[in-house]
Amino acid sequence: MPVQNDAPTGIGLWDEWGLWGSAANKLAAVAANDGDTSVIYAASGGRGVYETFTFPFLGGIGDPVNAASITAITRHYAHGAGHNYYVFFNRVAEAVIGVDADFGPTVEAGGGGYVTCTTSAAGANLAAAAVNSQHSLGFHGAGGPSNKAEFWVTQVYRTVDYGFGSAGSADPFTHLVASIVGAFIGSGLLLREMPRVSAFMKQRAGKWLRPDEYETAWRAWREQKFLVAA
User: Fold this and answer.
1) Stretches in the chain below the pLDDT threshold 50
2) Tell me, what's the pLDDT at 101?
3) Distance, CA of 170 to CA of 165 (rounded, Å)
4) How far apart are alpha carbons 229 and 13 in whole angstroms?
5) Which residues does 211 contact at the CB level (< 8 Å), separation at least 6?
6) What is the pLDDT of residue 118?
């Protein structure tokens, strides 16, 4: 089965972490493990600080997926005063009840080096729609304005182990079409719109459909439309 590692492609609901270093933006900062060269950071003296990412859409895949996880290469730069903790949220719309793990005990404190923090999805979070949803880093720190705690993150990525299709539509072509179209088009796709979709795909993704592929692609997308993330 394919195993895919994806860097974030966009900023989601929350955008509260800072940017430091040579990267042009936060997405570039977390695209590679380059240590302190470029990072995003969260500093807190008593409140939660959150950063949410979107990832490439995976369409035409089995539901649920075989395995999925979010990984952040993290440095606990300053401990501050009092308790602080670092969390991942899966499916940001359910953030209050969707905390995957508390990473405070696994991250070296007091100016330590980088460690790999991974949360693995389980249960409902293995659903294709959950995997395609937004995912967040969260940090809470105590200490007040004069003694903040701080986390640095130099890389974030999603790992998904999946199969192709469901309900008999198991083929890589379905996956390719649903992933490309699903990234740009909603679920209400009509067959007569496929030429426009093909042109749009060529412009945005460098891939397009031949006229003899329109109906096959449209049926593949209709079968997978329920995988579009909210």
Assistant:
1) 92-105, 167-169, 226-230
2) 38
3) 4
4) 14
5) 195
6) 80
DSSP state, residue 108: -
Q: Answer whether 103's CB lies under 8 Å from 86's CB.
A: yes
d(CA 181, CA 179): 6
Closest to 208 measured CA to CA, from 183, 164, 171, 176: 176
Q: pTM of the entire structure?
A: 0.72
- 30-78 pLDDT, tens digit each: 999 999 999 999 987 777 888 999 888 887 788 888 999 888 898 888 7
Q: Which structure tokens are listed for 32?
A: 């590679």
What's residue 174's pLDDT?
64
Coil, helix or strand at residue 3: strand
Judged by DSSP in three states, 181 sits in helix
Cα separations (Å) of 83 from 1, 97, 105, 138, 150?
Answer: 42, 21, 11, 14, 12
Cα 226 to Cα 50, 139, 160, 199: the distances in Å are 28, 32, 18, 24
Q: Tell me the CA distances in angstroms from 139 to 42, 154, 217, one per residue in order.
A: 7, 15, 42
